[in-house]
């Protein structure tokens, strides 16, 4: 089989070499010059580069022009879900079309589908409709979220005290955004949880839930965020399956986020992808399953021979945390207060950015590119969370000075 991989996620995360038989299949990777070093090594493959500066689908199609048509197109990055569908349609390759994938990329389409399935969602509207109708056309009061239709990791998300304040920020130019690419959404209070796993023929092969300590929205603004795994009840798994059916996810990985309320979970969003690196790492520790790798194997080889997951016990769960550096306004950082924690037996992995090592200036959830990151466990949820709360209260990340000669 000829396999075309739209290379977005590195080998260190996906393990392409382990999950695609590169000797049995002709595998072509379309990548950029910046990502060539993150391809698998030691296996036969064809590499085709694209610039990475223009429309992704157009660049991929230009890069593979003249090559034999693929039998399968794989994308591993959430940002490539729609471009991959466009490439399939252009080349006549079976698989998900643009129409198929819109419910997992466009948040208005997504929540419309989930709400139609009888699942509670925050009230929402396309931003152009809200601006055209005015504050009176928006069916809620109080805190309001402006959110990109196809955003990820809370990047570009803004919270306002009222509908009027949100609309005024757009009308007055305080917030410069692409109006057609945004929605307005009711702010629903509660802890944010996530459910991750893999579906095979519509049935969950492995499911594991977690709860954020802090929020991705606050992380985007510069605060630390963490996640601790929680008991995944049969009711939560059934609720999750209902949401996944509504958006058409039947095969492959998923990362679903919801708000915990006294009345039950409120659907927030879902992606047909694995969670961020710090989530996929702890998922593997608990279950033995590397989600993005198993998703690639499922796409290429089908369900036969997929490894079975471990079922983690409530006292052997894991957590992970990140202290970002992108919002410091500096290429370097100073970290204080971490000494009391880094040698604790709870800590499995600890990454501390050195004072003379440059930080990522872009929002990232990669543990190796932030100021401070770590993995905790195994332990019960409450113990993991208690450790993380104390860590967040004690550690400070502040702007550093450029190293001598830097």
Biggest sheet, in brief?
Answer: 8 strands, antiparallel
What is the straight-line distance between the termini? 49 Å
Low-confidence stretches: none
The whole-angstrom Rg is: 22 Å
Estimate nothing, just give the exact number of structural domains.
Answer: 3
- Could you name the CATH homologous superfamily of the largest domain? ATP-grasp fold, B domain
Helical residues, percent? 25-40%
The dominant shape is globular
With helices defined by DSSP (H or I, 4 residues minimum), what is the helix count?
14
Give the neighbour order of strands across the main sheet: 13-12-9-10-11-14-17-16
- The proportion of strand residues reads 25-35%
CATH topology of the largest domain: D-amino Acid Aminotransferase, Chain A, domain 1
């Amino acid at each position: 089989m000829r396999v075309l991989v739209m290379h977005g996620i590195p080998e260190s995360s996906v393990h392409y070499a382990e999950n695609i038989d590169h000797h049995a299949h002709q595998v072509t990777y379309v990548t950029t010059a910046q990502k060539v070093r993150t391809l698998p090594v030691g296996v036969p493959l064809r590499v085709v580069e694209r610039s990475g500066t223009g429309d992704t689908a157009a660049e991929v199609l230009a890069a593979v022009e003249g090559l034999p048509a693929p039998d399968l197109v794989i994308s591993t990055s959430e940002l490539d879900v729609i471009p991959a569908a466009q490439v399939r349609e252009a080349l006549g390759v079976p698989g998900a079309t643009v129409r198929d994938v819109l419910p997992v990329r466009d948040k208005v389409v997504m929540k419309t589908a989930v709400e139609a399935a009888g699942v509670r969602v925050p009230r929402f509207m396309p931003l152009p409709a809200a601006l055209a109708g005015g504050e009176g056309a928006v069916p809620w009061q109080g805190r309001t979220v402006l959110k990109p239709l196809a955003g990820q990791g809370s990047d570009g998300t803004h919270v306002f005290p009222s509908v009027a304040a949100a609309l005024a920020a757009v009308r007055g130019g305080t917030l410069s955004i692409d109006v057609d690419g945004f929605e307005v959404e009711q702010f629903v209070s509660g802890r944010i949880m996530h459910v991750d796993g893999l579906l095979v023929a519509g049935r969950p092969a492995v499911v594991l839930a977690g709860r954020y300590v802090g929020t991705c929205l606050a992380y985007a603004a510069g605060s630390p965020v963490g996640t601790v795994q929680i008991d995944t009840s049969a009711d939560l798994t059934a609720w999750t399956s209902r949401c996944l059916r509504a958006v058409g996810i039947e095969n492959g990985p998923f990362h679903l986020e919801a708000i915990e309320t006294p009345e039950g979970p409120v659907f927030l969003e879902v992606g047909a992808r694995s969670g961020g690196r710090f989530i996929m790492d702890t998922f593997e520790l608990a279950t033995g399953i590397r989600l993005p790798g198993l998703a690639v194997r499922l796409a290429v080889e089908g369900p036969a021979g997929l490894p079975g997951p471990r079922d983690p016990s409530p006292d052997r769960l894991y957590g992970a945390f990140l202290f970002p550096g992108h919002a410091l306004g500096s290429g370097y950082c100073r970290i204080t207060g971490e000494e009391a924690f880094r040698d604790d037996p709870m800590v499995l992995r600890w990454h501390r950015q050195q004072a003379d090592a440059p930080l990522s200036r872009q929002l990232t959830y990669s543990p190796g590119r932030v100021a401070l990151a770590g993995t905790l466990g195994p332990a019960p949820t409450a113990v993991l969370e208690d450790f993380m709360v104390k860590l967040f209260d004690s550690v400070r990340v502040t702007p550093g000075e450029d190293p001598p000669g830097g």
